[in-house]
Each structure stands twice: as C-alpha cells, then as structure tokens.
Specification:
74% of the residues lie in helices and 0% in strands. It is mainly α.
Length: 105
C-alpha cells in the first residue's frame, strides 16, 4: 500500500512536465513537417524558382515571335523574312538550295 502511494505521489510531479514535453514535441514536429511547416516552405521556394525560369524562357520565345511579326508588318517588311516564310509555308525551294530544317521548336 505504501508503495502505491509513493508511486502516485511521484507521478503527480511528472504529469505536468510530461504533458508540456509532449505538447512541445507535437507542435515542433508540425512546425517542421506540417502543411505550412519549414519543409513545405523550402518546397514552395523551389517551385517558385522553377516557375520563374519557365516564365523567363516563355518571355524570350515571345520576344522572338514578336520580332518576327514586326518584320512581317506592312510598314517594315523584310524581304528575306518574307521569302523564308513563303518558302516554308509553300514547301518550295529553288534548284541548288540547301534546306536545313530547324526542329528546335
């Protein structure tokens, strides 16, 4: 009987610190691995970096396309660009022409 009372008395002194320890571990775990934790923050930063690189590539491609469109406008028509476009669309060339296909697009 005396042993149970001693155990019960010591357990009273351990309950509060144990509770706070468990609570701290719980919130600490979720601060790192949770839906809005540090790990997710690093993942989002990486996704943003990849998306900004893709946006830069798209902006460069758009600038190239806009340049081609400006060259084909009636105000400033470039004969070489017009001829290149016509030959590409009509799939025609002259005898002695060398055709180099650009498959980068």
């Amino acid at each position: 009987m005396l042993l149970f009372q001693e155990i019960r008395r010591r357990m009273r002194h351990l309950v509060a610190p144990l509770f706070w320890l468990v609570l701290t571990v719980y919130f600490g775990y979720h601060a790192v691995n949770g839906e809005r934790g540090l790990r997710r923050l690093f993942e989002l930063k990486q996704e943003i970096q990849i998306a900004s690189q893709v946006a830069e590539e798209i902006a460069l491609r758009r600038a190239e396309m806009e340049k081609k469109v400006r060259q084909l406008s009636p105000q400033s028509i470039d004969v070489d660009t017009l001829e290149e476009s016509a030959r590409t669309l009509l799939n025609m060339g002259q005898e002695g022409d060398y055709v180099i296909l650009d498959t980068a697009e």
